[in-house]
């Protein structure tokens, strides 16, 4: 007769402890660090015509995990003025590569998370926020790092018109630890004020 109320009390206590743990460990969302490169005399060819978004050469085959990042890039390109088209008829191609990884509180990288697409387009600059244990009263959190690189090329000649790289790091209890939210955030930051200044690195704040 008394087993059920006791069970409910235990569930309530567990929920309360979880809520307190959440308060002791607020979500951490770092800024997105963005670097863009613009080819000389390419500005009049950007944000116009047709484009096809694809996985960058040398990366792993397409996967469901990579799809949200390609979709987010495509949305931003359409917003800028491009029209999506099949590869056969597109004027330009946007090649996307992504890496997501977890870093433990001790700063040790634990390996890929959700997406592990190899082949970097180059140095991503500093790794601000990545691999740092965050202690806000409830112990350090595991951090999730995301890096994305996009190259926009002329499909016929292969010439690179534009290249952008973005990275940011969030705690594992941030809503941006989710792949879809992460993809939207990095893509929006990457294409903000497109095409950007050649070689310039900026930081874009993400609202938690």
Q: Can you walk through the features of this model?
A:
With 208 residues, the chain is an alpha+beta fold. It has one domain (27-204): Lipoprotein like domain (Double Stranded RNA Binding Domain, 2-Layer Sandwich), CATH 3.30.160.150. Helices cover 23% and strands 32% of the residues. The chain is built from 3 helices and 10 strands, in the order αββαβββββββαβ. Strands 1, 2, 3, 4, 5, 8, 9 and 10 form an 8-stranded mixed β-sheet that branches. It has a two-stranded antiparallel ribbon with strand order 6-7.
Q: How are the SSEs ordered, and which strands pair?
A:
Layout: H1 3-24, E1 32-38, E2 50-55, H2 67-80, E3 83-84, E4 92-103, E5 109-116, E6 134-135, E7 140-141, E8 143-154, E9 160-171, H3 179-190, E10 201-204
Parallel strand pairs: 2-3, 2-4
Antiparallel strand pairs: 1-9, 1-10, 4-5, 4-8, 6-7, 8-9
Provide a quick synopsis of the model.
This protein has helices at 3-24, 67-80, 179-190; strands at 32-38, 50-55, 83-84, 92-103, 109-116, 134-135, 140-141, 143-154, 160-171, 201-204.
For this entry, give a set of tags.
208 residues; alpha+beta; Double Stranded RNA Binding Domain; eight-stranded mixed sheet; two-stranded antiparallel ribbon; 3 helices; globular; signal; DUF4136 domain-containing protein; DUF4136
User: Based on the structure given, which CATH architecture is correct?
Assistant: 2-Layer Sandwich
The CATH topology name reads Double Stranded RNA Binding Domain
Supply the CATH class. Answer: Alpha Beta
Number of helices: 3
> What is the succession of H and E elements?
HEEHEEEEEEEHE
């Amino acid at each position: 007769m008394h087993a059920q109320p006791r069970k409910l009390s235990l569930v309530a206590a567990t929920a309360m402890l979880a809520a307190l743990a959440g308060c002791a460990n607020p979500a951490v969302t770092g800024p997105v660090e963005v670097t863009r490169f613009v080819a000389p005399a390419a500005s009049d060819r950007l944000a116009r015509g047709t484009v096809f978004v694809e996985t960058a050469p040398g990366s792993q085959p397409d996967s469901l995990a990579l799809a949200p990042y390609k979709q987010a890039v495509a949305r931003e390109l359409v917003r800028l003025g491009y029209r999506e088209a099949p590869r056969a008829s597109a004027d330009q191609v946007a090649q996307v590569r992504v890496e997501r990884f977890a870093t433990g509180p001790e700063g040790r990288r634990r390996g890929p998370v959700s997406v592990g697409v190899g082949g970097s387009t180059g140095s991503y600059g500093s790794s601000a926020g990545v691999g740092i244990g965050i202690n806000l009263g409830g112990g350090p959190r595991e951090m999730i790092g995301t890096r994305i690189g996009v190259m926009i090329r002329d499909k016929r000649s292969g010439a690179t018109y534009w290249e952008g790289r973005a990275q940011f790091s969030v705690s594992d209890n941030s809503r941006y630890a989710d792949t879809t939210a992460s993809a939207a955030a990095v893509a929006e930051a990457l294409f903000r004020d497109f095409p950007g200044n050649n070689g310039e690195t900026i930081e874009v704040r993400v609202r938690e």
